Amino acid sequence: MKRIPRISRRVTSPLCAAVVLLVPALTSASLANADDGPGPLGVTVVAVDNAQSRKVGALFDADRRSSLAGGHFCTASVVYSPHRNLIVTAAHCLNGSKDGDLIFVPGYRGGQAPYGTWTVRKAFLPDGWAKGQHEDSDVAFAVVENKNGKSVEDAVGGNPFVAGVATGATAVTITGYPSAREVPVSCTNRPTRHSSTQQRIDCPGLSGGTSGSPWVNGDKAVVGILGGHEKGGSTDDISYSVVFGAEAAELYRDATN
Known about the structure:
Thrombin, subunit H; alpha+beta; 14 strands; signal; globular; 6 helices; Peptidase_S1_PA_chymotrypsin; Peptidase_S1_PA; 6-stranded antiparallel beta barrel
């Protein structure tokens, strides 16, 4: 499970700390390759601050708005929608939350919110999760409030959300926020089939807090969300996503309407 329980998100395990040791050892060339292209596959690095990584942000309890450092527990990202106000994450990240309980901070780094804090106003969970927390339904959308007449998509842009893409058709890049770090990390690799409804990827250091991280393919489309089997994986090195099918596509339509 790669969501950090909000009552204990400050705890750093030895596994979580592993990514702290991994990132500084990599070269700047590795950082650029992993973020800007297919890069070195299966290597986790600090995500470069650019137009793509700014669409990804951390989730916090709303009462952390004035004190963000150390408070994030999951990851989310902006996806295209008619009203330009939609984020996608794992369903288990929003489970039990009420309107206004959470905030989304795109491009979060070092306790700062360079693109603002956005209140999560309404969550959309699939029936399979709402009725039974089924791992094959571990994806969710949420509408965030506009700020001063501006939408979150106006602020940082978004990615298409696409269902029906074959697992492993291209490599994907995962960007997310481990709870032990105050910057996002990124890893590119090719997903493989875990089951007919789940896909997996080998990327080191994707520890607690990375639940909800987008899997973005070569067309810059979100084709997976870190979650699903074992709520994203029981180890830091192997992660999972629901295979987006009819349920995910219908949920997206509901959220955009």
